[in-house]
Please model this.
Amino acid sequence: MRHEPGSQPHIVIVPPGRLNVPRARELWAAREILYRFGVRDVVLRYRQTVVGVTWVVLQPLVTAAIFAVVFGRVAGLPSGDVPYFLFAFAGTMAWTVFAGVLTRAAPSLVANQALVAKVFFPRVVVPLSANLSVLIDFAVSLVLFAVLLAVNDVNPGWAALSLPLWILCALALGSGLGLAASAVMVKYRDVSYVVPWLVQALMYATPVAYALEAVPPDIAWWFDVNPLTWLMECFRWALLGTAAPPTWQVVALLGTSTAALLGGLLVFQQREREFADVI
Amino acid sequence: MDDTAITVRNLAKSYRIATSGRSHDRLSEALVARARHPFQRRAYETFDALHDLSFDVPWGEAVGIVGRNGAGKSTLLKILTRITAPSGGRVELGGRIGSLLEVGTGFHPELTGRENVFLNGSLLGMGRREIRRRFDDIVRFAGVERFLETPVKRFSSGMYVRLAFSVASHLDTEILAIDEVLAVGDAEFQRRSVDKMRDVAKDGRTVLYVSHQLQTVTALCTSAIFLDEGRLLLHGPVEAAVEAYRDSFATFRVRQMDADRRPGSGQLRLEQVSTTEVRGPTDDTVVTFGVGVNPDVVGKYFVSCVLRDHQGLAVAQCDSRLVGLWLDPSEPRSGVLRIKDLWLRPGPYTVDMYVCQSGIFDEWRAAASFEVLPHLPYPELVTEEGVFAAVMCDFDYEAW
Model:
């Protein structure tokens, strides 16, 4: 193989700028890595767990059942026109997309430190690859959910067509926080204890397992300003055909999701230059 | 388009080292520290790993990079392979750069051979089509056709390395970087790396080779770069660079004789360290030393001596506290260290000497040096390659 002048790609290495924006050509070239990382995560999870695929089916079912018992039966909270189990299942599905991306992306850089210290590739693909496995889990539970809808004779109507948009919002919110957390964790390892706790706290502070109507009016302001409330309302509208969320919430959700993703990317790229030196 | 494979202009790399307080590796600690001293700016000391490097490498050249430990060789390679970013300057590469530092990184023990080839290949910068096209070659070269669907955790270590190496070596980059220092430990792998390098250089591609093994550099490289303390001191013929590299040990030794330029707190300093300059492999190593006086130092101190071979590998470490020797700082002390039954391989050695208590008072690298003569202490003769371990030993065999 001889060198032919002009035929090779030309690479320029300079100190990173203030924003350290990754080069588009490099990101495009890294799509194969993103895909392979995603495949690795999926394969590992389904191959290593004893219950295998059943796990993905079982997990939301059991969680929704517990919620239905605790919040629906014990606490006696309302769930609108739909059975509490179905209501909680839809909430769990939506929450799992957001929380799954966040909790898988956050420790990803530290878990792959051998790679970060030895090979060059755009680092963003490491936390972003969490999206793939989360989407596959979601697809599995969506099939299950469709069956449950049919069994319970619930029809979400045309609103269901808006579902992809809300999935994108959940992924963007989770990825944004996950990117920032993964970058900070390279330097501060204790973030790995904070993230699961934060996710848990947020879950109770968000109407995942209970309906917004059950919230007492004096603390309703919190739910109005919590972007995850908006996300839940949009998801339930699309999945169960509950009342459509107000327009401002939809607009605010789209804005917040975009901002979260961009903000996360910014934090990540700012810190990226020192990954190989610190990790 | 590009006349040169690699163009480096004013390349610099500096690391920040926190000097005020200690650096925090927990977010909670960092936040508490910030809350306590909200206006304090962290003081940093910058450590320059590379200063203002400029050089060009034409196509088809095999360039050796030599220098003592810490000269910046690996940092330079890391910047060129883009693992870490430079702090200043500019590098232009005329083509893709691959390195053999990354053999097997990204291999996951639970994934099958096939899955790992695709994952690893994509990490090294191959597209899916390129991996598919070369897949059969990669597998055949590694000789693992029958185990493609087996998780690599069940592979023997030989198969594992063969497959990993096969993926890396089927990546046809125009520039190849090899760091011998990072590849130590596996003789088989080192041999393969050198073979690969030979092939690549023959192909007219460009090779960068970081090594301490001067024979390999002389045999394989067409030019060489000599780095010293992050500065490029010479870029030219291999012989000249190798010569400068050898001389740098002498200059370093001279510089270290000035106690003020040595690391350590300086509360106590070594005044002299000496040893027999030429000796046979089985002779005792005798090091004499003298330490100055400082009545302000509280408590007793100990000394420590480390013997290093020409590659910087610590062959022996002799701590005086291990044998119960503690010295009194209120009067000047001299002493002698005698190492018995250490059979050193022929070659040049250096002696590092330390004066310590809870911290290091004085660290004198290459305080003395000696040469072990090339006659082997065994009754029969073998070639030099027949004796390759780090040290030799007194042994005998019995058979029945």
The two ends of chain B are 72 Å apart (CA to CA). Chain B touches chain A through 55 residues (CB under 8 Å). The domain at 264-386 of chain B is CATH 2.70.50.60 (Coagulation Factor XIII; Chain A, domain 1).
